[in-house]
């Protein structure tokens, strides 16, 4: 605001600038940073945990256990690289042109691997990840890496919000022509006023995955 003196009166001039678009961009940036840090932290925690166990000699001279920890770190390193590549492709993600790779995958084996990859992170919270209900012989045509990322998000969030010493239960159920994979915990749950946002971009409260709802990443039975 500035003051302007004239012969007859005193006047003030003011400039008003609309910064709503800038605020929106800042909000999106902050949400993106929060999401990226969350996405990267999960495989980093698993890699760090595996390395610490190796350094601590937990497996001793047991070559099979040492090899298992090395493989765990290696697989999470691959996940981390995929996440970094996705960030580099963020422009494609925004425009809806991100490519998917569909292959026939054993769903139960994928869930088991997801649990194995995320158990080191769950150990940090003294939480166990267990399959309580399952079915065999389920083949799904899916983008394996995308579904693995979804499962990792569900498992890591469930472990993070569980009580210390708690259990995260995973179930795989046949539902007519579809398969339902659910991840349940006994934590604080999703706030009532937040539930209508669970599938929005940058939202981190997802708890349940319906395969039929993931049509961009998976098809029903093959």
Fold and architecture overview:
The protein has 2 domains: 38-99, Signal transduction histidine kinase, dimerisation/phosphotransfer (DHp) domain (Helix Hairpins); 100-222, 2-Layer Sandwich (Heat Shock Protein 90), CATH 3.30.565. Helix content is 46%, strand content 20%. It has 5 helices and 9 strands. It has helices spanning 20-55, 63-88, 90-95, 107-124, 144-160, and strands at residues 2-5, 10-13, 103-106, 128-133, 139-142, 167-175, 178-184, 208-210, 218-221. The longest helix has 36 residues, at 20-55. It starts with a strand and ends with a strand.
Question: Could you give a short description of this structure?
Answer:
By secondary structure, this protein is an alpha+beta fold. 46% of the residues lie in helices and 20% in strands. The strands form 3 sheets. A 4-stranded mixed sheet has the order 4-6-7-8, with helices on one face. A 3-stranded antiparallel sheet has the order 3-5-9. It has a two-stranded antiparallel ribbon with strand order 1-2.
Task: Spell out the blueprint of helices and strands.
Layout: E1 2-5, E2 10-13, H1 20-55, H2 63-88, H3 90-95, E3 103-106, H4 107-124, E4 128-133, E5 139-142, H5 144-160, E6 167-175, E7 178-184, E8 208-210, E9 218-221
Parallel strand pairs: 4-6
Antiparallel strand pairs: 1-2, 3-5, 5-9, 6-7, 7-8
